[in-house]
């Protein structure tokens, strides 16, 4: 089964909004065995939408649209779908009841503009929106499925996950696709490729490997296609076991796990807590940890010690240490981690200091130089890293590297 994704919105074309919807939808469709063969980003114009729908109808079995279902004048997707399917808008009381309930919960009065969202194309199946007001729309024509969802990411994701994807999966026949993603940290893409070249060259013909690098991480995605899903899973599992024997020291997780989720689980299992003392990352590590629901069970707090004064006054770094070794040094990050752990009453502490760039580097300490320390009551480790010269990439790489150092120390301490 082939799919087209059509993203509607001028804000996408001018770069005002990043099109995360397309990548998420493509990933989810692929997981259930649907091949996404085209992603179109088009403007809020009727002729553009009609042309995209016409092309998709000729070349795909599933067409998913996002955007343009709101109540304002620039939201024309519903009216355009009516023209494409030769139908008209009708008022749907059940949809209006959902909209009224949504606003009532928020103590807001429903306006005439909001009431317009209860007008839907006659003949379509309505997909309830439990996270917002604009309903999703499901059409079928000549054996093809057309689905329109709101452009708001969390509204779209809820609709797709709870109803749309399961309904599409029920229609699938023939080959299926199985994916397995191996998450690695601490080794670059090219070096990783050299390490696993023999394993990769001996993969079965029906299993493909993709390298998916991001700052500080490389994901290895195995994809297998065939008629027997259980057999495909077994085949991929065999290859993962072989891979573990080659690069186990670099593997930190699988599939959609994040480093922060894994660390959270480890800390909960051990009943331990963590704090951060950050300089060059400016709180990025603390943000990563706290975006996990329930992180208050193990994260106590953070000190963003950007200046030397804060390092001394709040983290107790000795003035002599800063004068003799500098802020970006093994000695400084060790004192930052040790004192942060004690002052904030935690079991573990991460500290980090570096030169994110693009300015501030010297011949002795160039841009991209980062020192990271992880401290516990029994142990403290510090490592030096030399990243690149792009500021945000350095911050991301340093943060994920620091988190992986923490993960390893938690595992070591728990043995």
Note down, in words, how this protein is organized:
The protein has 415 residues and is an alpha/beta fold. The protein has three domains: 2-171, Molybdenum Cofactor Biosythetic Enzyme, Chain A (3-Layer(aba) Sandwich); 176-254, Alpha-Beta Plaits; 259-414, Maf protein (Alpha-Beta Complex), CATH 3.90.950.20. It is 42% helix and 26% strand. The chain has 16 helices and 17 strands. The protein has helices at 10-13, 20-31, 46-59, 77-84, 93-105, 112-115, 153-171, 189-195, 197-201, 229-247, 259-270, 284-290, 308-313, 319-325, 330-343, 391-414; strands at residues 2-8, 35-42, 62-66, 89-91, 119-121, 125-127, 136-141, 144-149, 176-185, 207-214, 217-226, 251-254, 274-278, 299-304, 348-354, 369-376, 380-386. The protein has a six-stranded mixed β-sheet, sandwiched between helices. Strands 14-13-15-16-17 form a five-stranded mixed β-sheet, sandwiched between helices. Strands 10-11-9-12 form a four-stranded antiparallel β-sheet, sandwiched between helices. A hairpin with a 2-residue loop joins strand 7 and strand 8 (144-149). Helix 2 packs parallel to helix 7. It is globular, with a radius of gyration of 26 Å.
List keywords for this structure.
alpha/beta, Alpha-Beta Plaits, 16 helices, 42% helix
In short:
This protein folds into 3 domains: 170 residues, MoaB/Mog-like domain (Molybdenum Cofactor Biosythetic Enzyme, Chain A, 3-Layer(aba) Sandwich), CATH 3.40.980; 79 residues, Alpha-Beta Plaits (2-Layer Sandwich), CATH 3.30.70.2860; 156 residues, CinA-like (Maf protein, Alpha-Beta Complex), CATH 3.90.950.20. Strand 6 and strand 7 form a beta hairpin.
């Amino acid at each position: 089964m082939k799919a087209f994704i059509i993203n509607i919105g001028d804000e996408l074309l001018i770069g005002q909004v990043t099109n995360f919807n397309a990548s998420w939808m493509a990933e989810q469709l692929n997981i259930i065995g649907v091949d996404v063969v085209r992603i179109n980003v088009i403007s809020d114009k009727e002729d553009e939408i009609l042309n995209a729908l016409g092309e998709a109808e000729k070349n795909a079995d599933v067409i998913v649209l996002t955007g343009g279902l709101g109540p304002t004048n620039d939201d024309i997707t519903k009216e355009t779908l009516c023209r494409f399917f030769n139908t008209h808008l009708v008022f749907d009381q059940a949809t209006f009841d959902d909209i009224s309930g949504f606003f009532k919960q928020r103590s807001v009065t429903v306006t005439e503009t909001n009431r317009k969202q209860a007008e839907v194309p006659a003949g379509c199946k309505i997909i309830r929106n439990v996270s917002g007001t604009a309903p999703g729309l499901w059409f079928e024509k000549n054996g093809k499925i057309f689905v329109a969802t709101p452009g708001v990411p969390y509204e779209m994701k809820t609709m797709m996950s709870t109803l749309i994807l399961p309904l599409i999966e029920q229609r699938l026949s023939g080959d299926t696709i199985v994916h397995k993603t191996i998450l690695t940290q601490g080794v670059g893409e090219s070096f990783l490729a050299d390490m696993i070249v023999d394993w990769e060259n001996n993969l079965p013909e029906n299993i493909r490997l993709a390298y998916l690098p991001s700052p500080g991480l490389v994901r290895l995605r195995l994809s297998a296609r065939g008629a027997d899903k259980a057999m495909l899973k077994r085949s991929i599992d065999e290859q993962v076991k072989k891979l573990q024997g080659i690069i186990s020291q670099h593997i930190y997780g699988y599939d959609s796990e994040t480093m922060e989720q894994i660390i959270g689980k480890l800390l909960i299992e051990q009943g331990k807590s963590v704090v951060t003392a950050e300089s060059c990352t400016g709180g990025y590590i603390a943000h990563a940890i706290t975006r996990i629901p329930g992180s208050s069970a193990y994260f106590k707090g953070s000190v963003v010690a950007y200046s030397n004064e804060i390092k001394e006054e709040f983290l107790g770094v000795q003035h002599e240490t800063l004068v003799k070794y500098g802020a970006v040094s093994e000695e400084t990050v060790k004192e930052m981690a040790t004192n942060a752990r004690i002052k904030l009453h935690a079991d573990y502490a991460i500290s980090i200091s570096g030169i994110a760039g693009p300015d501030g580097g010297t011949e002795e300490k160039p841009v991209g130089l980062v020192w990271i320390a992880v401290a516990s009551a029994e142990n403290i480790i510090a490592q030096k890293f030399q990243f690149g010269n792009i500021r945000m990439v350095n911050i991301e790489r340093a943060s994920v590297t620091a988190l992986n150092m923490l993960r390893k120390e938690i595992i070591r301490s728990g043995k």
